[in-house]
Each structure stands twice: as C-alpha cells, then as structure tokens.
Design a protein that fits this description.
The protein is an all-alpha fold and 294 residues long. The protein has ten helices and no strands. Helix 6 packs across helix 9. The longest helix is centred in the first third of the chain and has 37 residues. The radius of gyration is 21 Å and the shape is flat.
Length: 294
C-alpha cells in the first residue's frame, strides 16, 4: 500500500482485505473450536475498527449498514470468546488452588453451559447472515462506493491520514497513562486498555506502507496483551468472589485459598502491566513513533 495512494482508495482496499480475513476464519469458528472463535473475533474486530478509522471517508448510509452487521457479529463472538477465556483462567486457578477445585465445580459447569448457549446464538446469527454472505455483500458495496467518492478528503495522501489518525489515538493513551501508576484499579485499567487497543488497531492498516512503524507497534501490542491479561483476572476474581458469596462458601478454606491465589496473581499482573506501560511514556517510544510517521 503506497504512502501516496489516496486515502479513500486505501480505505476501500483495506476493507476488502478485512472482509477476506473474516471469510477465512468463519468455518473454524462456527465449528465451535475455541481458537477458531478467537481468530474470527480478531478478524471481525479489525473490520470494525477499520469502519471506525476510515469513517469520514466512507458513504454514511452504507457504512452504517455494514457496521450494524459487524457489531452484531462481534458481540455474538465476544459472548463465546469471553467464556472460553474465563474457563481457561479458571483451569489455571484450579491448578494453583487445589483445595478449591470442588468448590469451583458448579461455576465451571455454569460457564460451560453458558458457552454452549452462546455458541448456539452465534450459529443462529451466522445463519441469518446467510453464512456471512450478507456481511460480505455490504462490505463489498461499501468499498466499491468509497472508490467512487470525489470529496477532497478522499484525495488526502495515505501518509497524511495515517499521521493524523495515529497521533490522535496516541494522545488518548498518553492522557490515561498516569492514572494507572497511582493504584490497581480495574476501571482505570479498563479505560487505558481500550485506548491502547484502539491505538494498536489504528496502527495496523499502515504497517505495510510505513515499515518503521513496526517497532513502536510491537511495543503497543505487548502493552495491550499485558493489560488484557490483567483485565481478565480482574473479571475472574470478581466472578469467583460472587460465586463463593452466593453459594455460601465465602468463609471456607477453599475460598480463602482461591482468593489468596487470585490476589497474588493480580498484584503480579498489575506490576507487570505498569512496567510495560512505562515504555509508552518514554521519550524513546514517542521518538520512534514520530520517526515512523515522518
């Protein structure tokens, strides 16, 4: 993708590429395979973020129709994937808190049942999408219409569009960095995690055209992964605590061991995340980003 290609044409090409990714992972996801669900959810998220990133370049009505289906698909995939993640982390907890295995059995069964129902909902949605054909058609129509637009913004060089978009997202991350250094707060982490994730997805379309962007992008991806794992354990701890409360097991040895293991794990993850976050606040990272965009 050339730096000097008009942004409108580049946006259309990127949407078509993301459409192909969705089609590539659909069969594995609909089989119920956890990795397939994960891969398709990432592909759908990238498509959604592209629809957001290039929103001003896209015909409004066609974009809204494409985004509607993309959001529905993302939400349905998310309900399955979130339970896969929780079940995976619950297995880790059972391995590190063996006294709690029996006390957590009902929670595991509940999540497995919910996962099955969420997968049924996903399959039903995909059938309504005619095995993805409706989404495929809407993205294709949107991309075709975008290439025909003649507004001034469409002709903006991709290089300039990348600079403006990435700088805006980077500023949002910078504004939220300080708060996490002060305390281990799930809400603060969540806001920062979302900002970092959006910066990551904003950088991705331009990696081919801006090779030097790979270095600062790798840092962002590593930070996003650390923050995501920490957030997962925030969710797990809250769910496990609620399970023990509602089941009358809160004051048992099993609960004490499980919650102590989770507290230690969260403390480690928050410390690691703060350390990773520091790289985004360093002048070297900002300089590498500006060099890539120059």
């Amino acid at each position: 993708m050339s730096l000097y290609r008009p942004a409108g044409q580049a946006a259309a090409a990127f949407l078509l590429a993301k459409r192909k990714e969705v089609a590539l992972y659909a069969d594995a996801a609909m089989s119920g395979d956890p990795e397939g669900v994960h891969d398709l959810r990432v592909a759908v998220k990238r498509l959604r973020e592209a629809l957001r990133l290039f929103s001003k370049l896209l015909p409004r009505r066609l974009r809204a129709r494409a985004l509607e289906l993309t959001e529905q698909c993302n939400d349905a995939l998310g309900r399955v994937r979130d339970l896969d993640v929780l079940l995976g982390h619950l297995q880790w907890l059972e391995e590190h808190a063996p006294a709690a295995v029996e006390a957590l059995a009902n929670l595991r069964e509940t999540w497995q049942e919910q996962r099955g129902l969420a997968l049924e909902d996903l399959l039903a949605l995909w059938r309504r999408f005619k095995d993805g054909a409706r989404l495929h058609t809407r993205i294709t129509k949107l991309a075709d219409a975008t290439t025909l637009r003649t507004k001034q913004l469409q002709r903006l060089p991709l290089e300039s569009f990348a600079y403006l978009s990435i700088r805006a997202r980077a500023r949002q991350v910078a504004e939220r960095l300080t708060a996490l250094q002060e305390k281990d707060d799930p809400a603060t982490l969540h806001r920062l995690r979302i900002a970092v994730k959006r910066l990551k997805y904003t950088m991705e379309p331009f990696l081919q055209a801006l090779p030097a962007l790979a270095e600062p992008y790798a840092v962002v991806a590593k930070v996003q992964e650390a923050a995501g794992l920490t957030h997962d354990y925030d969710v797990l701890e809250a769910a496990v605590l609620e399970h023990f409360r509602t089941s009358g097991l809160r004051r048992t040895r099993a609960a004490r061991q499980a919650l102590e293991v989770l507290r230690e794990r969260r403390a480690q993850l928050y410390a690691a995340t703060r350390q990773e976050m520091k790289t985004l606040a360093r002048p070297q990272w900002h300089q590498a980003l500006m060099y890539a965009l120059d």
